[in-house]
């Protein structure tokens, strides 16, 4: 006989306010997202990604001198350690790129000698440096993950390029036109932070045990990989490939819904009337569609969106426009979620710092539903 729960259970922690945060505010009522008080679409329209990173980490947009200092620090930390290259090369070529990133991030923790020092794990100053180190290393790791699958050598970073341009340079060996750079930078700003989403909450759970920042980020990468979270941007493109063209979208959708399949890139735990970031990312996608002359892709996008909204009343999330945008830029589909990592690492590390500055171990309760007490057979 099983005890039935006598307490209210919040499955998936839906609707539960687990803590306070000063980093970002997701407001489903006004359909807005603020980073430290600033509307995200205004930041995306005006700020370099590095300035947004400074804002999320420090609470204020940088002065010109602060921005220059962060840029110099990040650029100096870009080169990949030979040992990281070896760890990546040891993985099979068909290892999923998110597993490559997770492995490399974990190794960066193992290589960080400051973690050995007494108190070094929680030192806020050291952790700020580690956050910049992770940010600086990720484009090289993500880019090499894609290049080696294509049989290509890594491209060395360039310290005359900003974060977004250098990321594209290390991936493709060239810096694309400004319209492409701008769409990419926009996506990084929009992906940088989103309060207590699953991966950020994972990072905070790990941080709350007073573990180190690399462990928190490694765990967060694992959480982001799933298709209900960051993995959806990859899944959107797989669906587009399955559908093929706009005229097949409605039939595909009807079959998917009849089979009770989730349509990736739609829906959100918090937003009910659409994702605040979609208009800015859709505008970036439109610019790419015009640049690459791909009205066919735009038609598929629009047809699937209209059909899904008409049938389910559920709107696209950020992954829906981001997936096809990355596709047009030339990224492999499996590289989309790793790009998300290279942006969200800013939010994760900001939350690790906030959690550890006023820590309380995260340890919820559960309502037991297993067998009642019984005797072990003798
Ligand atoms: C950057 C990000 O991480 S954004 C999120 C990216 N994830 C996706 O795009 C995956 C697809 N979307 C989903 O699976 C969901 O919308 C989630 C997981 C994001 C949020 O879901 P929840 O708040 O847990 O709602 P839940 O999954 O219970 O959905 C509620 C209802 O809407 C339906 N629904 C929600 N999203 C979808 C979808 N994308 N496709 C089909 N049906 C959907 C569910 O089937 C469910 O229907 P039911 O009540 O008839 O069973
Ligand atoms: O907030 C969420 O649950 C998921 C999301 O959109 C994000 O992490 O960007």
TrEMBL record:
Q: Which GO terms describe its molecular function?
A: citrate synthase activity
Keyword Ligase part of the UniProt annotation: no
Pathway involvement of the protein, from the record:
Carbohydrate metabolism; tricarboxylic acid cycle
One GO BP annotation of this record: tricarboxylic acid cycle
- Name the InterPro entries for this protein: 2-MeCitrate/Citrate_synth_II, Citrate_synth-like_lrg_a-sub, Citrate_synth-like_sm_a-sub, Citrate_synthase, Citrate_synthase_AS, Citrate_synthase_bac-typ, Citrate_synthase_sf
Xref: PROSITE patterns: CITRATE_SYNTHASE
Cellular component aspect of the GO annotation:
cytosol
Provide the reaction this enzyme catalyses.
oxaloacetate + acetyl-CoA + H2O = citrate + CoA + H(+)
Residues in the active site? 268, 319
User: Keyword annotations for this protein?
Assistant: Transferase, Tricarboxylic acid cycle
- PANTHER family with a match to the protein in the record: CITRATE SYNTHASE, CITRATE SYNTHASE, PEROXISOMAL
UniProt name for this protein:
Citrate synthase
Lineage of the organism: Bacteria, Bacillati, Actinomycetota, Actinomycetes, Micrococcales
């Amino acid at each position: 006989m099983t005890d039935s729960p006598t307490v209210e259970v919040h499955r998936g922690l839906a609707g539960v306010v687990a803590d306070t945060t000063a980093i970002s505010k997701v407001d489903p009522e006004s359909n807005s997202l603020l980073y430290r008080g600033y509307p995200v679409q205004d930041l995306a329209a005006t700020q370099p990604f590095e300035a947004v990173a400074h804002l999320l980490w420090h609470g204020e947009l940088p002065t010109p001198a602060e921005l220059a200092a962060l840029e110099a620090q990040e650029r100096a930390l870009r080169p990949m350690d030979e040992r990281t290259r070896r760890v990546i090369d040891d993985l099979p070529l068909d290892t999923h790129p998110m597993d490559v990133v997770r492995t490399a991030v974990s190794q960066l923790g193992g290589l960080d000698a400051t973690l050995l020092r007494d108190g070094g794990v929680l030192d806020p100053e050291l952790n700020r440096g580690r956050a910049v180190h992770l940010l600086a290393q990720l484009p090289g790791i993500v880019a090499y993950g894609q290049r080696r699958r294509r049989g290509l050598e890594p491209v060395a970073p360039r310290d005359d390029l900003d974060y977004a341009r250098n990321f594209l340079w290390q991936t493709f060996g060239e810096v694309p036109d400004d319209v492409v750079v701008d769409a990419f930078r926009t996506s990084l700003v929009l992906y940088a932070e989103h309060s207590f989403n699953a991966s950020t909450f994972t990072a905070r759970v790990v941080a709350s045990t007073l573990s180190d920042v690399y462990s928190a980020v490694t765990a967060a990468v694992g959480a982001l990989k799933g298709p209900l979270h960051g993995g959806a941007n990859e899944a959107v493109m797989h669906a587009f490939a399955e559908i093929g063209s706009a005229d097949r979208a409605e039939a595909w959708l009807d079959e998917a819904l009849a089979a009770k399949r989730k349509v990736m890139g739609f829906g959100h735990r918090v937003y009910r009337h659409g994702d605040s970031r979609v208009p800015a990312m859709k505008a970036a996608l439109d610019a790419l569609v015009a640049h690459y002359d791909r009205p066919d892709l735009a038609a598929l996008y629009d047809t699937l969106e209209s059909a899904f909204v008409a049938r389910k009343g559920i709107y696209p999330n950020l992954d829906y426009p981001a997936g096809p945008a990355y596709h047009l830029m030339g990224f492999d589909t499996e590289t989309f979620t790793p790009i998300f990592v290279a942006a969200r690492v800013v939010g994760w590390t900001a939350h690790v710092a906030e959690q550890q500055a006023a820590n309380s171990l995260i340890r919820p309760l559960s309502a037991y539903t297993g067998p009642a007490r019984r005797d072990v057979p003798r």
